[in-house]
Structure formats: C-alpha cells, structure tokens
Please model this.
Amino acid sequence: MREPTFLVLTALAEEPRHGYAVIEDVATMTGGRVRLRAGTLYAALDRLRLDGLIEIDREEVVQSRLRRYYRLTGAGEQALAAESARLRRQATIAERRLKIRRATLGGATA
Amino acid sequence: MTVLERRYRRLLRVYPAAHRAVYEEEMLGVLLAGSPPGRRLPRPADAFDLLRAGLAVRFGRRSKADYGTAWRDAAAVSALLVALLIGDFVVTTCTEAVSDLTDRAAALLSGVTVLVELGTLMFWLGRVPWAAMRLAWAPTMAVLVAVAFAAARTARPIRGVVGRFGLGMIVIAVTVPLFTSWAVRATVLQSDDVAVWLPLALFAGVVIGIDRPVRSRVALVFLGMLVAPIVLLESWDLTVMGGSTTWVPDTVDPGGVLLALAPLAVVAVAGLWLARRFAPRERGHVRVHE
Model:
C-alpha cells in the first residue's frame, strides 16, 4: 500500500469526508509534510472505490458544486488494520534494533 | 465561470469522458477550494499532477471501468425525453421547455405532465369509465419520469450530456408539434407524424450524439420507460383482469377500478425502490460498480 492510499484510508477511518477535507486532514496528520494534489487524491479514491475499500457516503451540493463524501467499508477497515499492523511490526523491529545498538555501543555515540 | 475554473476544466479533459462524468465537478471543487481568490493560472504542480494522473487513467488498465454516474446521466436524459414526449400531447406545456431546458424546468415539466394526465383521466372518468382506466399508462409513465428525475439529482446538467447539437434537436422536437394543425391542414403529413414520429426521430438523433458510456444506457432506460408501462398493463389485463376481449365493458365496479389502477402502485413502489438505490443522499445506496 502506497503512502497516499494509507493516508486517505486513515483520514476516512475517523469519519466520512469529502475530497478537500481529506486533503486537509492528511496535511494536519502529517504536520504539513504531505499535501495531496487533486490528481493523486482522485487516483487513490477511484482505485479504492473500485477495490471496494471505500464507498460513497452521501453527496451534497454546496455553492452549486458537487461535494461527495466517502467512507470506509468493512473491507477498507480490514485493509487499513492490516497495513497499520505491518507498519507497527516494522517500526517495532527498527526501535528494538536501535535500542540494542545504543546499549552495546554504550556512550560511544554520546 | 472564472478564468481559473475554465483553465482547470480544460486541463481535466486529459481524463477520459467516463471518468470526467463521475469526478469532474468534484475535482473542480477541490482544485478551486485549494486556490487563493484572484488566482488566474493553475498551480504548475497541480497541473502536472492532473496530467500525470489523467494520462494514467486514460492508458491504464481500468480506463474501461464503468462508472455508476453514467446511469444517473442516462436517467436524467431519458426522463427528459419521455417527459417531452408525453408533453408533446400537451402542447401548452412545451413552451416552458423551450424557454429553459435546465433540470428544474424538466422536472417542472414532468410535474405538469402528471397533473395534465391525471386531469385527462378525471375528465374521461365521468363519461366512459373504462376508457379512463386505459389511460393509466400515462400517469404510470409520469411516475417513472418523476422517479428518474429523483434518481438523477446529481447527474451532469443535461446540456453537458447531450451537447449543443443535441439540445438543438430537442428544442426542434418540442417545437414541431406546435405546427401539427398547420401540417395536417397542408395534407403533407399525418398528425401522428408530427406529434410522435418526428420527435422520436429527433430524440434518436440526440441519443446517437451522446458520449459512449451514457449512450447505450439512455437507449435502454428510454425504451424501458416507454415500453414497461405498456407491458405491465397488458400482462395485468391478461392475468389479473382475465384478458377480457371487449375493451370497454358495460359496467365498471369499484373493485375493477382499483384493480385497473393497481399497476400504477406497482410502478410507483418499484420506482421508489430504484430511486432509493441510485439516490445519492441515501447512506450506502450508491453502488460502486454498476
């Protein structure tokens, strides 16, 4: 799973959001590091829809412009859980090794 | 439409029509929401991202994917065509459609059509009761039209689906019946030619001019809306009414009237169910793959 996909799913895990709200939430979550652009966002949304990981929650017309809210499906929830578990396992391994490294090298790096 | 919107719209043309039919308005909203007021040129990074993503869709594996909104566009166009076709019989309502062919006018037209057809039914009810019941197909079609418009609330504007040329043909099709009496007096044409066949031919032209994912669906929905009530009423006659050979029975009892009108209820219920399935505001009723 590529990072934009993971972040979009994470944004929708909280509540149904429309496109622009997803962009803003992703920017907030990543401290401004990732700002999704429309092309990338809709490539991800379209693929996730076709894969059944997200679906349309509702549509609204705000200032004569269509606003479509997306939400996570059951399959999307599982995919996000699996991906975050995988990331956590890798992060745990990385942290453990860093801890061992610091312990064996002692004050060498200090 | 601002300069920026027009430029983004032009950029979005890099996406295939089927993709645009679903996402164009939504993507425009996102692009414009992210632009400071007064900006006239698309941000280069956004433009590049659109080109990259658009070409990926166009040449990607999934470029042939179906999009649910195509059905909604088809519902909107079909509903308009059927409404106009019924409206052809009610020439006075046609001028409304000529003056403004937006969704709202079309919806209004379908409403007017319902009223007029119900009025016709009531008019005949006092004279030849059974003939009035035979008019049930008209309200049935009107119900279908109203339901199709309900399902098509977030479809693209009809103007965008049929194009300028298609819109022109619709306008001609609506205008032609106004000259029915003149044409018939000139003995060049029969009344049916002007009121039914000419508009139908023009509508066929409109449908042929529609882009691909929507075209075949309009053909299906439009024909379905025309044929379904007839098939329903015919099979209703044959099975429930016992296939009476005399079309105008001497006496009409209340039970017979209710039975004769029952298909209207069937269509209404089926239509509402379908509209719920396609209606955008209902939670979980928009399907991902159509």
About this structure: Residues 69-278 of chain B form one domain. Confidence is low (pLDDT under 50) at residues 92-100, 280-290 of chain B. Chain B touches chain A through 33 residues (CB under 8 Å). Chain B has two domains: 3-64, 69-278.
